[in-house]
Design goal:
The protein contains 9 helices and 10 strands. It has helices at about 10-45, 65-70, 85-100, 120-125, 135-145, 175-180, 200-220, 235-240, 250-255; strands at about 1-5, 5-10, 55-60, 75-80, 105-110, 125-130, 150-155, 185-195, 225-230, 245-250. The strands form 2 sheets. An 8-stranded parallel beta sheet has the order 9-8-7-6-5-4-3-10. The N and C termini lie far apart (about 40 Å).
């Protein structure tokens, strides 16, 4: 049997590849169902509408085939950290979905942003969760193409004050928010946090509560924000209890991560 014109494999090998592909797709579909079930339980426990919390599937280091499997299982939004990997993957996913006449997913950039890489982020993504400086926001605003919808922005907050973490200090959030809110071709949506990891549920809630209170304070100042991007696999329940509207989950959906190729950066 010929595959792709030049590669010859036996019928048994071909069927084996199909079975493996179906197995991977089934696993991703089952994992998505499990994550949604956990989100539903967390929302109900917090007396919240389950539809008020969205799942962002963090697909960094996973290939286009994994994303396509998740799309076919109903997932509509994906988060990426490594820019070049993301751009290649997004192009491959777009070609495959257009061939199948399926809608494109929503792409969120959730990695650190270097000044010299803002243009492709502005041109290709729907959301950016990691704005921490006015300079970065200004470049995204200038480089967002006029025919595209406004780029949705979340400000990353260093809620724990960790020196190893990116993010604007809580005391400086208001000034940055008001600056970003006035920039053309951007839509300030809310705040994002990656708090210091702790095992205790109440301690997890405390960090998320502080972020929610920051958002509420900004709204009192007229910012009209609607998004709290907070919570991952280990602390999703606490984040939902404190008002998360987007939770970011990766390995619980796709499995163990592949290693980033040597030399590849965000």
């Amino acid at each position: 049997m010929s595959v792709g014109g030049n590669v010859h494999i036996t019928s048994a090998e071909f069927l084996s590849r199909i079975a493996y592909s179906e197995l991977i797709m089934s696993r991703i579909s089952q994992n998505l169902q499990a994550v949604h079930a956990a989100m539903l339980q967390a929302a109900q426990s917090a007396a919240r509408d389950p539809d008020s919390v969205r799942l962002l599937a963090v697909s960094k280091t996973f290939d286009a085939a994994a994303v396509l499997d998740a799309v076919r299982a109903g997932q509509t939004a994906f988060g990426e950290i490594y820019l070049q990997e993301a751009l290649d993957k997004m192009a491959a996913v777009a070609v495959a979905l257009q061939q199948q006449q399926l809608p494109l997913p929503e792409w969120h950039f959730i990695g650190p942003i270097q000044s010299n890489k803002t243009r492709p982020i502005a041109e290709h993504f729907d959301w950016v969760h990691t704005v921490e400086r006015e300079k970065i926001a200004s470049r995204l605003s200038e480089q967002r193409l006029p025919h595209l919808a406004p780029l949705n922005i979340c400000l990353q907050v260093n809620i724990s004050g960790e020196s190893s973490k990116s993010g604007v200090a809580p005391a400086d959030v208001a000034a940055l928010a008001h600056a970003v809110a006035g920039m053309p071709r951007l839509r300030l949506r809310g705040l994002m946090v990656i708090p210091e990891p702790v095992a205790d549920f109440n301690a997890q809630r405390l960090s998320f509560r502080r972020l929610r209170q920051l958002l509420e304070d900004l709204n009192k100042q007229g910012c009209a924000l609607d998004t709290l991007s907070m919570g991952m696999s280990a602390d999703m329940t606490a984040a939902i209890a404190e008002g998360a509207t987007i939770v970011r989950v990766g390995s619980a959906i796709f499995g163990q991560r592949n290693q980033l190729k040597q030399g590849e950066t965000a």
